[in-house]
Amino acid sequence: MTHVLVDDLTKRYPGSEQPALDAFTLDIPSGSLTAFLGPSGCGKTTTLKMIAGLLRPTAGSILFDGRDVVSTPAEKRGAVMVFQNYLLFPYMSIGDNVGFGLKMRGVPRQTIRRRVEEMLELVQLPGVADRRPTQLSGGQQQRIALARALITEPNVLLLDEPLSNLDAHLRDEMRDLIVRIQRDLAVTTIFVTHDQGEAVVLADKIALIFDGVLTQYAEPSEFYLRPVSGRAAQFFGGTNFFPAVRRGSVVETPIGSFAFDAPYAERAPAGESVLTIRPEQLHVRGANGDPNTVTGTVRSRIYVGTYTRYIVRVGEHDVEVIRSADTPGQINEGDDVHVHFPSDRLWLVPKA
Amino acid sequence: MASSRSAGAGRQEPEGRGTVSGGLASGVHYGALVVLLLFLIAPLIAFLFNAFAFRWFYPQFIPNEISFRAWATVADPNSKVLEAFVTSVGIALGVTLASIAIGLPAARALGLYAFRGKRVIEFLLLAPTIVPGVAIALGLNINFLRWGLAGEPFGVGLVHLVPVMPYVVLVLSGVFANYDTNFEDQARSLGARPLAIFWYVTLPAIIPGVMVAGLFAFLISWSQYILTFLIGSGRVVTLPILLFSTAAGGNAALTAAMSLVFIGPAILVLILISRYLSGESGAVGGFGKI
């Protein structure tokens, strides 16, 4: 249970104009599960390695429970990293791999053996201590890597893309295991991922990083309801973006004018901005009459099983709408429809 | 080792190609092998005969009488053969250890990192294989005399490093080219200190390459004549030095016996290291293949 405060952390590589990480500040509550999310090369793994102590920051500080650990070497920091490709030591047995951290701390052999068995139980792989890493599947190796990290009772557990090397069904299994163990041990955990779905399902809070800059740090639902930028909205599957000008609680766009709900209206940027609304928040109706409704023609209809995706042409713009599968009423390509923009779901982001 | 590999290649001929060409190919393999073995082993057989022969003259195909006189001379402290043997082993082992100690960091830098001037350094490291050793030794001799290193085993070992280092660095940098340093980071993250990382993580990964490099180092140092002769100033008597003077003396039996003493350790080292040379140890490339 360690509270992690990353303050103004910056990493510059020699010969590169743009810093790999720029003034990154983040407060990670003790015992929480946090995701570093972003496209590849955004600096998320760099940040993880700096917290682990495997990479020296150019500037800034990292505090564990208020104590600056930047000058503490990795082997004494207690922030254990699990690498994406597991990195089990190939010439050691599974038992020796899992017990490695305790051996380095001079723990008696008897104790190590007992703790190794406990850890193997924890990751649901009892009795594999005598096997070799190559005798295990990728998913099993991943679990051993996790056990090897957890046996040291780390202050902070750092997972680099823990699910990306696994098959789909193993991924769900591993995800549940990580969540269960993390809740049981209440170890402060940070994991890196490029998959927003993974981050949403696993994390208490997500730090979205673009180009070495922290874009948004919030609970998963915030990224759907209140993204800070068009790019953040897009990363979470937002598809509807319309240039907008807000005047009071009314926003004007090329496809029509919409009334805003007051609490949102006050926070939204005034003047030129971009209106965004998630496709599942829009409603398609057969009849007109409501305010905040625009009329268009269904250009395409894609059946995805649990829902159907429609592209509706409104003037010069496409509006994407998702309807859940059991919504009554059939809508076909070529139909004229009315799309309702709920006033409490409209969201404005700054112009890019 | 060579024979098993060659036989294996013969057996692996695809069956569909017809047995005639397959048979021919493996016939050529075996032929080449026999010629090779003759070249390598025939002189050794001559040594064996000579070393145990007593009055072995031209028309006789094999010696008539067996004698251990030559071996008695070898074992006699007055012949200084054993003394030279110890000197040779000492210098070769010292050179081996020193070359690994120097070569490891250099090879790691060359194998893992790109840096300015890397090409120049690589060329300089290989330069001793191009420049004749005599030229280097003659040039160094003056300075070694001035520094009191000439005529000392330490100085001889030092000059042996000149032809040894290119091979050691070449072999070891190949090892590091496939080496994944993330394993070291992983160990560090789990609480391993630098020395523990080297012992538990780095060394097991590179040990096959280190053994092979050590083999080269030992054998190159072991068989040095001209460098030892020039820098040793006649006071450092290694086996090759003694062997040359004995051979010049014309005692065929003693020369043969000493040659066997000279060849023995080299073959022994080769056998000890051979499992690292065989294809089975993919570990020569570090962890890269796992």
What does this structure look like?
The complex is a heterodimer of chains A (352) and B (290). Chain A contains ten helices and 20 strands. Chain A has 352 residues and is of the alpha+beta class. Chain A folds into two domains: 221 residues, P-loop containing nucleotide triphosphate hydrolases (Rossmann fold); 112 residues, Beta Barrel (OB fold (Dihydrolipoamide Acetyltransferase, E2P)), CATH 2.40.50. The two termini of chain A are 40 Å apart. Chain B has 290 residues and is mainly alpha-helical. Chain B is built from twelve helices and two strands, in the order H-H-E-E-H-H-H-H-H-H-H-H-H-H. Chain B has a two-stranded antiparallel sheet. The longest helix of chain B is centred in the N-terminal third of the chain and has 34 residues. The N terminus and C terminus of chain B are likely disordered. At the A-B interface, helix 2, strand 6 and helix 3 of A face helix 8 and helix 9 of B.
Helicity of chain B, in percent? over 70%
Return the CATH architecture of the largest domain in chain A. 3-Layer(aba) Sandwich
What Rg of chain B is obtained from the alpha carbons, in whole angstroms? Answer: 23 Å
Number of helices of chain B: 12
Q: Summarize the amount of helix of chain A as a percent range.
A: 25-40%
Helix and strand topology:
The complex is a heterodimer of chains A (352) and B (290).
Chain A: E1 4-11, E2 21-28, E3 33-37, H1 44-52, E4 59-64, E5 67-68, H2 74-77, E6 79-82, H3 94-104, H4 109-122, H5 138-150, E7 156-160, H6 168-185, E8 188-193, H7 196-202, E9 205-210, E10 213-218, H8 220-225, H9 230-235, E11 240-247, E12 250-253, E13 256-259, H10 262-267, E14 271-277, E15 283-285, E16 293-303, E17 307-314, E18 317-324, E19 336-340, E20 347-350
Parallel strand pairs in A: 3-8, 3-9, 6-7, 7-8
Antiparallel strand pairs in A: 1-2, 1-4, 4-5, 9-10, 11-12, 11-14, 12-13, 14-20, 15-19, 16-17, 16-19, 17-18
Helix pairs in contact in A: 3-4, 3-5, 4-5
Chain B: H1 2-11, H2 19-52, E1 53-54, E2 65-66, H3 69-75, H4 81-112, H5 118-130, H6 133-147, H7 153-177, H8 182-189, H9 194-222, H10 226-232, H11 239-249, H12 252-277
Antiparallel strand pairs in B: 1-2
